[in-house]
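User: Please run a holo structure prediction.
Assistant: Happy to. Please share the sequence and the ligand.
User: Here you go; the ligand is magnesium ion.
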Amino acid sequence: MSKAIQAVRGMNDLLPETVERWQLVEATARDVLHAYGYREIRLPLLEKSELFARSIGSQTDIVEKEMYSFEDRNGDNLTLRPEGTAGCVRAGIENGFLHNQIQRLWYAGPMFRHERPQKGRYRQFHQIGVEAFGIDTPDLDAELILMCVRLWKSLGLEGLTLELNSLGTPESRATYRAKLTRFLKARRDQLDEDSLRRLEKNPMRILDSKNPAMQPVIAEAPNLHDHLDEDSRTHFDRLGEYLKESGVAYRINPRLVRGLDYYTRTVFEWTTDRLGAQSAVCAGGRFDGLVEQLGGRPAPAAGFAIGMERLVELLARQSPSPSSGAPEAYLVLLGESAGKHGLRLAECLRNAGLRIECHCGGGGLKAQLKRADRSRARFALMLGDEELQDNTVTVKDMRGKDVQVSVHQDVLIDFLNERTGRRVKT
Ligand code: ATP
Ligand code: MG
């Protein structure tokens, strides 16, 4: 036997048991997003590499070392999208749906980053992303956060904390950045290797360091909030008021800087202490300058992205697996005549909206019931010569609550609807 080929490191197969939970999250998210008037947009996985350098920022970790970039057969430099915002803005400019318009959009799908794979951190991972364009006031920021709250509630998720910060305008940020760089340079001997590397190119990311040895320097560093411009401060305060008004608890974290260059003013993160080191489940903020930066006419914007793997993992820890996809019944077919009639019966039941797994490949009763058990179906419907004769099926409750009963085929749909608690349309 030749050696089996394995998946690319950091890229996961999602097996059917897992996918059921994903589908639950996706369906719930879609309902919540639609409830706020957001519409789905579907975008390419591949974009020109330049798009990400120009939006995320050429000095960021993502662009410097995490992108899957390659030259295609035409010699074009392309990248598998590491996030969705850049592509969404590109599409908005290209299709002309941003200028002077309000757009509320969402998307879902895989993203690619060449990071070190570990629990909650993969090279292909999935995001549900939300972007709103054309509104520069903090009521929109509040709406985005309320949408998250509603989603956590709908999923029954607990233990998520909202962290909030403001990065100010590019101008106020530049002033702060210069001051921070001076402060850090004077303490060069206390900086770790990572921070030394970031000192010139991306000093604000140093505030984000998880290294305990760095915490004393970080604690003493100048505070971004003391350097916010007047408008950004007002924006931030008003967002706080909206959230209080809506009963949403939050923690201001002046060290929350985010890893992407395009953010302005509001940034936020939802974190949990139940997933170990990869604690951020959702992150977002305002990016008022990005549309113009990518060649469009200026348009304010804000959004967020949810990390699906982390959200699903959090949900899995809290609630037993959903069995929404299991068939209601497994059809056991004994003998040749039953085999023929069985396909027709199964179609009839499916016409009534029931999920039916039909036995294929013949075999004895015992073997077929074993398969019925594995299918997770609630009922086994047994059809043999005798049943064919008097137009019945023998129904066995696979959870053992009932003995076997004989049910006439004319009332089988009603019987199954009633026993599985399905709502019957009248
Ligand atoms: P982190 O600080 O965990 O690296 P990030 O700031 O790089 O996250 P964003 O780019 O803002 O993350 O993406 C939003 C969300 O997507 C994150 O909060 C996280 O839940 C998820 N995410 C980001 N990178 C990965 C990854 N490599 N694997 C799995 N999920 C990820
Ligand atoms: Mg990251």
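The chain has a mean pLDDT of 93.
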